[in-house]
Amino acid sequence: DEKTGRRVFDLRMQSGETEFRPGQKTPTWGFDGSYLGPTLRAKRGEKVEVRIRNGLDEASTVHWHGMHLPARMDGGPHQMVAPGKNWAPHWTVDQPAATLWYHPHPHGETEQHVRRGLAGMFLVDDDRSERLALPKRYGVDDLPVIVQDVRFDGAELDSGHKMMQDVGFLGDRTMVNGTLDPYKIVHDERVRLRLLNASTARTYDFGFTDGQKFALVGTDGGLLDRPATMDRIQLSPGERAEVVVRMKPGERSVLRSYPQDNYGSSWHRRFSGGDDTFDVLQLRAADRLRPSPAVPSRLGELELPAPGNAVRARHFDLKISGINGRKMAMGRVDETVTRGTTEVWTVRNGNGMPHNFHIHDVQFRVVSVNGERPPAQLRGRKDTVFIPSGTTMKLALRFDGGPEFADPRTPYMFHCHLLSHEDQGMMGQFVVV
Ligand code: C2O
Ligand code: CU
Ligand code: CU
User: Fold this and answer.
1) Is the Cβ atom of 198 under 6 angstroms away from ligand 1?
2) Residues 388 and 263 both lie in one domain
3) I need a surface site. Which of 33, 84, 196, 407 has the fewest CB within 10 A?
4) pLDDT tens across 125-182, in order?
């Protein structure tokens, strides 16, 4: 936009029909289409404005998951958009290159709105990410991989009531970018997968069926300082990871989700998805591959808060009945933090059920997991983290930003990102003053 200097995006929330299976039209929701939404992309330092129109016949919101932005632009449950109405949040992108995403956040309805199809990616670039020798041709060797589980009830998406487990809705098959049985033909020696777990309840533990290792180059909020060689990456709902995979000419690599032994009691493993296996995505390498540069051994500086600077400690006890024994209440602010300060939050899951923890506005450092140094996949910038049963994590967070970030009247959320838990009240509110 010439007057405001903003990069403007238009997003329309709408209902439609999607043909996931030949000849079967399934009623779904999407942004600018019938299912999911376009990938938005902006560079650090840019001003952006998203013009949202709610073309649904229900009120909803659009939340910028992982984005550092003033609370009234956040798209949480306090920024409802009525049917037929518009909302145009704007902010300056001020954070490192990362794979972020957007989705609705209406209180008590988030699970349903996301599962009907409202979700999309928001990629942030910066000078460093544009220079680094990582695969970066979008859709060619830099692939968005939005993973969701679904279940069909005839032509319809299962409304969920039949298959609600205590973790929430679990589907019986997975999709990538809204496609069943997905595959991608690859023409490059290395591909970067931007993995997003956009499922409402299911946690995945991704690896390749031939056991091949991959390079983890980024977590929720940005690139790591150096790549980590892994053969598995566990992602709970809302988490992202960027991995670089090496292809072999003419061969197929299958990304699979494996059973997870940190998923809680054996009952939960068995009945809440922890023992399940899914083939998620097939990469088919062409017979001749274009050479790709090796993954750089240094990716850059991690911008992470220092726990030594913390001025305040807080504790959060996770239970499905509420965080710290309280159910979410729209009119109650649970925590008040001071702009420009660092805090350490201790989050504990003392019950047998898997949970995770997501904090709006910030990217945090995982300081420790049950007192130990976190594993490689938790050493980067994070906004959502899986907290297995019996686990205590210490997180360091910093509430940065200019004066527009101080807003005693508009809260940000922290919550379990198993969306039915969130909807049942496993969420709290904080304000930055
Ligand atoms: Cu991805 Cu509060 O949400
Ligand atoms: Cu969020
Ligand atoms: Cu939970």
Assistant:
1) no
2) no
3) 84
4) 999 999 999 999 999 999 999 999 999 999 999 876 655 678 999 999 999 999 999 9
- CA-nearest residue for atom 3, ligand 1, is 65
For the CA of 66, the nearest atom of ligand 1:
1
Distance 189 CA to ligand 2 centre (A): 34
Q: Is 63 in the pocket of ligand 1 (CB under 6 A)?
A: yes
How far is 320 from 299, CA to CA, in rounded Å? 39
Q: What is the DSSP string of 20-71?
A: EETTEEEEEEEESSSSB-PPEEEETT-EEEEEEEE-SSS-B--EEET----G
134 — alpha (psi -120 to 50), left (phi > 0) or beta?
A: beta
Which ligand is closest to the CA of 360, given by its number? Answer: 2
On whether the pTM is more than 0.90, the answer is yes
Tell me: ipTM over 0.95. Answer: yes
347 close to ligand 1 (CB < 6 Angstrom)? no
**pLDDT of the residue at 428:** 98
Domain containing residue 240: 142-290
Last residue of a domain, one of 223, 256, 290: 290
Can you give the pLDDT at residue 158?
85
Looking at the domain assignment, is residue 320 inside a domain? yes
Ligand 1 atom closest to 76 (CA): 2
Please indicate whether residue 238, judged by its CB atom, sits closer than 6 Å to ligand 1.
Answer: yes
